[in-house]
Specification:
By secondary structure, the chain is α/β, with parallel strands linked by helices. The chain has helices at residues 4-13, 152-160, 199-210, 224-232, 254-259, 295-314, 366-371; strands spanning 20-24, 37-38, 48-49, 53-56, 66-74, 88-92, 104-107, 111-114, 117-120, 130-131, 142-144, 165-169, 173-179, 183-184, 195-196, 213-220, 239-243, 263-268, 272-273, 279-283, 286-291, 323-327, 338-347, 353-357, 374-378, 390-395. Bound molecules: adenosine monophosphate and magnesium ion (MG).
């Protein structure tokens, strides 16, 4: 049995980045940049005013009040053709280019205009309310790096950089196969001993939220030939996820069925709860990750391992900040497996997070996963903990979108 970290590393190391495509900005949200992006323009392109007011020479406004002659105007998008001479001022607006000769802007509120003269009522320091050329960024500067998962603010920045389309990773295609003779698709009519396939839809959804494209292979009965035929449908995918059939029972047939189809196992069994019977290997060229069938195990393993696999396929930077919370109740010492405990998540009046593990952690109980606020992470062999200790958590509201 290997540790969670080692399993995650081995999974990530086995994935090469998928190909890339060029997308216009309005389709790039959530995608992962495949190359560094440099600004094509400087912003602002020239020195501009940060305020509505008057462009002046600082030398003229070292003491106040002072009366200046009013020249013309410099609106945003326009320009003042002349040069501001000593004792002169030009009306300027936010974003308007600073006219030649001027080096400072005085606020409209601190002036009084009458006819051709403007009284500046407050002295001003050199460069006040002026945005220098390239204050935000300079042409040629790399502002977005390969591996970045694009957010709305990045889209805005790329537009400001005059980059209308971005080279991003294609969505990895991940085949999803539910296995189990007891399973019926949602909306079907379960027989007396049958249950609904929760994992297929759950994994498809979670894959989408990670930035992958699920390819649903449906449900395969626990039968070697059926499993072989269903798995063949995954050909060409970047990853095959099998759900269920990975433990030690006589009907857990994935290894048996796919062994003769070229399955080369890397590891099987990870020191995690829920989710011990996790397997990883290759089916020909295609990586195969076998998740346990219990729905909570499958989803926790998706969060811990499938996400790492998708990030590696996307060449995505790690963008998850560790979160800690105050433990809401005492916990016993842990055994050798890393636990992910479904917990309520609340806040104290001072804003600090409090995570209270649920008493029952049965890995078949999906309703409690849906209603819980976070997972508390308990490292292997952790000593008993008292309520009030700080513990690492994976919060669902702040964490992976869509989980
Ligand atoms: P397995 O990993 O195949 O031994 O399954 C473990 C438990 O999870 C069994 O109780 C299965 O009935 C259940 N299970 C397996 N696959 C699914 C699924 N796709 N949706 C819901 N429950 C499942
Ligand atoms: Mg099964």
């Amino acid at each position: 049995m290997i540790s969670v970290d080692e399993a995650r590393q081995r999974i990530a190391a086995a994935m090469g980045p998928v190909g890339s495509e060029v997308l216009p900005l309005d389709q790039a949200l959530g995608r992962v940049l495949a190359e560094d992006v440099a600004a094509r323009v400087s912003q602002p392109p020239v020195a501009v005013s940060a305020m509505d007011g008057y462009a002046v020479r600082a030398a003229d406004v070292q003491s106040a009040p002072v009366t200046l002659r009013r020249g013309g105007e410099a609106p945003a998008g326009g320009s003042y053709p002349g040069k501001v001479k000593a004792g002169e001022t030009v009306r300027i607006f936010t974003g308007g280019p600073l006219p030649a000769g001027a080096d400072t802007v005085v606020l409209q509120e601190n002036t009084e205009a009458s006819g051709a003269s403007v009284v500046v009522k407050q002295a001003s320091a050199l460069g006040r309310h002026v945005r220098g050329a390239g204050l935000d960024f300079q042409a040629g500067q790399v502002l977005l790096r390969a591996g970045r998962r694009l957010r709305a603010r990045d889209i805005g920045l790329a537009a400001a950089m005059n980059v209308p389309a971005l080279q991003v990773r294609k969505r990895p295609r991940v085949a999803v196969l539910s296995t189990g003779s007891e399973l019926v698709p949602a909306g079907g009519t379960p027989g007396p001993n049958q249950i609904i396939d929760a994992n297929g839809p759950a994994l498809a959804a979670v894959l989408r939220s990670f930035g992958a494209e699920p390819v649903t292979l449906g449900i395969a009965r626990d039968d070697v030939a059926v499993l072989q035929e269903a798995a063949a449908g995954a050909r060409g995918a970047d990853l095959l996820l099998t759900l269920g059939g990975a433990s030690v029972g006589e009907h857990d047939l994935i290894q048996k069925a796919l062994g003769s189809q070229g399955l080369a196992m890397d590891f099987w069994k990870v020191a995690i709860r829920p989710g011990k019977p996790l397997m990883f290997g290759r089916l020909g060229d295609m990586p195969l990750l076998g998740l346990p069938g219990n729905p909570v195990s499958a989803l926790v393993c998706a969060l811990v391992f499938v996400r790492a696999a998708i990030d590696a396929l996307l060449g995505a930077e790690a963008d998850r900040e560790p979160v800690t919370a105050i433990l809401g109740r005492d916990l016993d010492a842990n055994d050798g497996r890393q636990d992910y405990l479904r917990s309520e998540l609340g806040r104290r009046a001072d804003g600090s997070l409090v995570a209270t593990p649920l008493a029952r952690q049965d890995s078949s109980m999906l309703a409690s996963l849906a209603s819980s606020g976070c997972l508390v992470v308990r490292p292997p062999n952790a000593p008993p903990l008292r309520a009030g200790a700080m513990v690492p958590v994976i919060p669902f509201s702040l964490g992976p979108e869509g989980f």
